[in-house]
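Still learning. Show one?

>
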Amino acid sequence: MMYAARGSAADEITSADLGGLVGEALAGVAGARKVIALPPDITRFHSRAGEITDLIHGQLGGRLAAVLPALGTHAPMTPAEIATMFPRTPASLFQVHDWRKDPLEFARIPASFVREVGEGVVDYDYPVMASRKLVEDGYDAIVSIGQVVPHEVVGMANHAKNIFVGTGGKESIDKSHFLGAAYGMERMMGRADTPVRRLFNKALELAGGKLPPVLWILTVMGRSGDGRLVMKGFYAGDDNECFEKAAALSRLVNIDQLDSPIDKAVVWLDPSEFRSTWLGNKAVYRTRMAMADGGELIVMAPGLAHFGEDSGIDALIRRYGYRPSATIRALVREHEDLASSLSAAAHLIHGSSEGRFKVTYAPGPGVSREEIEGVGYGWAPLAEMMRRYDPEKLRLGWNELPGGERVFFVPNPALGLWTTKSRFNAR
């Protein structure tokens, strides 16, 4: 059932509003004495999940026994990041998810189901995996918090993904990500009903009796008329209805359907949020459907320090590079190291332009020109790009520069999807 629902394309939910909405939502855990919260990490700072988690702690008090950021494959949050994102939640409550060691397997979804939902693009079963902390540490309720936004792996982010990827294990993350990549990112982006979503829903069905009851708190973020990032929707419930409502609103406010493709796009990656291409390649994922054939995507990434979020995946990215889907799928068949890390293979597919347009990275001092070119991207000097395309002066969308150059600027690719009307509606 739904416990709280507010949202529209014209809405603006303020901090003053959130306390009441969180209070309504927490009716869903009224009888719980030991609650664990699953918010996103710092890479989803703009979801306002940190503010919501602080409010949950303020209202539940000692009943909130733990906070487990849904890291998935991301690096653990630092103490400074925790203090920044969750300033009013005690640091002592925070735990770290290790996707390689912590998950527990609840069930396996047969290969026949995966083949059916994926229309035959893969042929393997799927392990239903989530952190053992959720079932072994005595919690009687989970509060899962996050933003619904177009997503390259699942179509629309969050809900069951927060558990089965955010606290999932290597095999489950590998297989879900590769299913989405093999099926085709363009066929899924901005869709609530996709092969990967059906997989996660089945996983939730199979694990439901073993996991504590889950309360979902989902936000939708969008731009106000004057360009500010604001909360457009807040939905909380214990079933799929809250996700469906949030996804419908996200489709309205987070997808920019352009009349014509982009010849030159410029994307800014905030150094406090994006330090790897594993995360920063949202610049590619979220603009790929809008780029013109023969166009150029320039990614300014002053905080870039590495490619993968861990050394194993970083090494695979450096070894194989960002290549078209057909190439990566052939490499998976030929090389065991890539076949055994399908989430990395999926990432390489997602980060490719599929040969249609040029991707140029302008990194900070943490990554060299040779490294950038080694993974298949073009390189440009950051200082020159920032002089030419000053992120403080450009506005979201189309900009005409002195001299007549026309560019499309995206200040944060994590917050939306940009596509042409023809590509989005042709699927």
User: Anything to note?
Assistant: Residues 257-425 form a domain with the 2-enoyl-CoA Hydratase; Chain A, domain 1 fold (CATH 3.90.226.30). The first strand starts at residue 2 and ends at 7. The chain has a mean pLDDT of 96.
